[in-house]
Design a protein that fits this description.
CATH architecture of the largest domain: Alpha-Beta Barrel
CATH topology of the largest domain: TIM Barrel
Strand order of the largest sheet: 3-4-5-6-7-8-9-10
Low-confidence stretches: 1-7, 21-43
Strand content: 5-15%
Number of domains: 2
Number of strands: 10
């Protein structure tokens, strides 16, 4: 039985589908028009708003197109994203084994005038200057461009990875006109990475895991504030807050009811919760099809903010279901084990598999682990990590499940 005044789960799903369809109407009408035409027949059309990217002097769209999908065979997604004002495009040298960058390059080759409209971001898996130079030149060639707007070191776990020689390298690449801005992305120990970056003085931008589950934590709030004060542009990713395990919560229905009353789906509401913080310049979202792109654009165009009650319900829901979400604080659990075991990476693989439906990507990341590490996972006792985990994750059980699902 649902609480009085709230929807049953079945009714919620029906209503959510209705709201989802309704929320797409405005965006779908735009999609049906010829480029450059609005419903009134003029050259204007709704476009995603922009925000300052820190103190770099650059304005970026508040919604960023995540490039981890089959771009070469889905060029229409790039064209439609641009038409709606989603001009921040994110990719990496490794996405799709390079096909993501190649697909963007095909688009720029066909529509060369569009390059100046795009804030283009890509990433390097290399940590040394020679490797970074090689990957940057490869990215430039693949994407048919002479410059990258923002170049990231991909997926750091600690600020010590951002070594002084990277600063020298970035300054040289900027002087040569190959990049305009420099920074890093991070899935692990995000707060420490952000706080450290604010002190370095040479980081222009950061992409980090940031969502309704961790945005209320004091350390994260302090880290975001420190970066904002330092002028660093911030991009949020993993904003749906999916975890390696689904946890039931009665608050879910109450929360969904609040969203529906305001006309949002749960996914749209979670985006709007992040946009509620003006220090977050953009949200990077993987949008592999027009349906998701349309829904996210509709959320960005809708200027109605989440109610205080809806925000409160999100925070309560995050607390109640914390045991199903890995907050990325690998410095805690991995240190407790006394040996090098990629606990946070495995939790991320499970998240991709279960919450994002990206089974192939999860298996691919798991396959990148050394064989000796994969073998060690099957007989290791993770009790020490479980005892110290702030989220109270059942780490041992989840890792055993990962070794079966992802093998």
């Amino acid at each position: 039985m649902a609480k009085k005044g709230y929807l049953s789960r079945r009714d919620f799903l029906k209503a959510a589908g209705t709201v989802s369809a309704a929320s797409l109407i405005g965006a779908t009408r735009v999609a049906a028009q010829a480029p450059g035409q609005s419903e009134r027949g003029s050259s204007e059309h709704p476009r995603v708003p922009t925000r300052p990217f820190g103190k770099t002097g650059v304005q970026v769209s508040v919604l960023s197109l995540g490039g981890m999908f089959d771009i070469p065979s889905n060029q229409m997604m790039l064209k439609q994203a641009l038409h709606w004002g989603v001009t921040y495009w994110d990719t990496a040298d490794c996405y799709g084994n390079g096909k993501s960058e190649t697909g963007i390059g095909e688009f720029f080759k066909k529509y060369p005038d569009t390059r100046a409209q795009v804030f283009l971001v890509t990433k390097s898996d290399s940590r040394n200057p020679a490797g970074m130079t090689g990957l940057l030149n490869q990215s430039l060639e693949r994407m048919n461009t002479h410059y990258i707007d923002l170049y990231f070191i991909h997926g750091i776990s600690g600020i010590k990875e951002m070594k002084p020689e990277m600063k020298t390298w970035a300054e040289k690449a900027k002087a040569e006109g190959k990049i305009k801005l420099f920074g890093f992305s991070t899935h692990s120990n995000m707060e420490d990475c952000l706080l450290g970056a604010a002190k370095l003085g040479w980081i222009d931008g950061i992409m980090m895991t940031y969502n309704f589950r961790i945005m209320h934590q004091e350390q994260m709030k302090n880290a975001v504030e420190a970066c904002s004060s330092a002028g660093i542009g911030l991009t949020a990713m993993k904003t749906q807050g999916g975890g390696p395990l689904t946890v039931d919560s009665e608050t879910e229905l109450e929360m969904a009811s609040q969203f529906l009353k305001q006309g949002f789906t749960d996914k749209q509401a979670k985006l709007k919760a992040v946009w509620d913080n003006p220090r977050i310049a953009s949200i990077c979202s993987q949008m592999p099809n027009l349906t998701i792109l349309s829904a996210n654009v509709a959320a960005a165009l809708n200027q109605i903010k989440l109610s205080a009650e809806a925000m409160r319900q999100l925070e309560v829901y995050a607390r109640e279901t914390a045991c199903g979400y890995c907050a990325g604080c690998s410095r805690i659990c991995e240190a407790a084990m006394g040996e090098s075991l990629p606990i946070a990476d495995l939790m991320r693989c499970l998240m991709y598999y279960r919450s994002y439906g990206e089974q192939d990507r999860a298996r691919s990341l798991f396959a990148e682990l050394p064989p000796a590490t994969r073998e060690r996972l099957t007989d290791c006792d993770f009790a020490a990590a479980e005892r110290i985990c702030p989220q109270r994750l059942r780490i041992g059980k989840l890792i055993k499940e990962a070794t079966v699902l992802l093998a």
